[in-house]
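Morning F.,

Quick status update on the modeling queue. The single chain you submitted on Monday has been processed. Sequence for confirmation:
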Amino acid sequence: MTGFQQIVNENPYNYLGLVASWDYAATSLIAGLQGGSGGGNTDNPDFENEDTEENFSEDIITDDIVENQIDDLIDDPQEKSNKNSKYKNNSKKSLITNSKVFQEKIFSTFKNSRDHEIQKIKDLQSKVETHTATKQEKSEYESKRILNSLIRTSKPENIYEHINSINTDIQKLFSKRNSLESIENKVLIPTEYNLSQNYPNPFNPTTKINFSLPEDGKIKLTVYDILGREVKRLINSEFRSAGRYTVEFIGTGLSSGVYFYKLEAGKFVQTKRMVLIK
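Structure tokens below.
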């Protein structure tokens, strides 16, 4: 269980920590069924506190464990019985030294990974609060925040409590995600009609025209010359769902000069000017 606890402590913002918390609970339940201690929630680690270095144990590999490993490596019974054996003493010292060096490197890597994760969540939070985060960064921050709220160690009383706990975590995780996606989809739908200035402008010979529709309907998008004569109908009374659109206009075969493009959608009518330079 110590291993699962360690993984939980080191991964407070990702799925590895969540799965490890479930494994911790399952292991605790099995131990209880085999005559271990009772269940119940344990004191949850405060993942929001970055100064929790005490969570990183540095005494997992003890001298007793190393000595037992040395005994297993020695085949000669007489050699095993000789506690003052030069070979055993040297091997023990060497293995202890190597084990501690390896252990230090492992925990250094774990701590660096956890510190990096904490710094990343702080950076994302700062961007969200200052309204500079992209859509992907907002989604990543919210996912990590939700995961952090679900990651904890517990000792369920029975299998039903354990299964219910996992189901609850999954429901919270995906229900909040679906809610976020629904909000994002609503944001993608414009609240008003809009015809944007073409880009680039002036252009030669291609430019793009953006427009927004807050509701479904038939629309027309037409290009006229400076005399008001129709040059090209880009969209001819076609049905479009609410959303944002981009249409490309190619001025090949046209003379340099000023042109106008007009969007008609129900009662909404808007016209803008563009310049073709060859």
